[in-house]
Amino acid sequence: MKRVACAIFDLDGVLTSTTAEHFQAWSMLFLKHFGIELDPKLESLTRGVSRISSLEVLLNHYQIELSEDKKRRLANEKNRYYKHLIETFDEGNLLPGARELLETLKEREIKIALASASKNSGVLLNRLKIDGYFDYVVNPSRIKGKPNPDIFVKAQKYFGLKASECIGFEDALAGVEAIKKARMFAIGVGFEDLSKADLVVESLPQLTNGILDRILEGKQVHGRHRTSSSKNRT
Length: 234
Ligand code: B16
Ligand code: MG
Description:
Layout: E1 6-9, H1 19-34, H2 43-46, H3 51-61, H4 68-85, H5 98-107, E2 111-114, H6 121-127, E3 136-137, H7 150-158, E4 166-170, H8 173-181, E5 185-189, E6 199-201, H9 209-216, E7 225-226
Parallel strand pairs: 1-2, 1-4, 2-3, 4-5, 5-6, 6-7
Helix pairs in contact: 1-4, 3-4
The chain binds 1,6-di-O-phosphono-beta-D-glucopyranose and magnesium ion.
């Protein structure tokens, strides 16, 4: 691994949390159209997954078959509910440590990119008042979803960098897999089993400047590091 030149971020679950709003919007849709109260356990299956794929996951679970046109209309309706739910989002919805991390990366002249599956990410970055930190936001349309590495590779290529000069941040297993397939250093954030990541932190403030400096200098590549007390330290 080389000195890091670019940090590529997922959005939901890393910099902010829109998980509840996404699932609430799906719940409203399923109740209205199918009279189904969604099982909360299904939420994790839709995390980090595109809008239409999330719908297909939920329909499959309840063995509901629909035409492509009907699916598209339902996905659009869910998005209307979701957009309404995130109307009140502001800086207070940033996850702890997010702004500080972006600030530190900017100070060190690291390029910053967004690799979110969400087509609402532009609006969210704006509402969270962090859009100014981003040098590039990958458009997720027509890009294969995670765990395919394309969204991370797109950011890398935009800057003309090598994969070994990039690091990725993700809260979902599929996202960590995408980063690893892109041959980048993967930082897993959260409580899910992200054991495929090179480093796992439960939240961004655990990524102290000391650890971050080592990563940015490309010194961290050997072994796995865990700051979670419940997991083995190496
Ligand atoms: P949209 P991420 C993902 O965000 C969400 O985790 C996932 O629940 C959602 O279905 C997906 O974005 C698409 O979002 O409907 O707004 O286009 O984790 O990739 O930042
Ligand atoms: Mg995510």
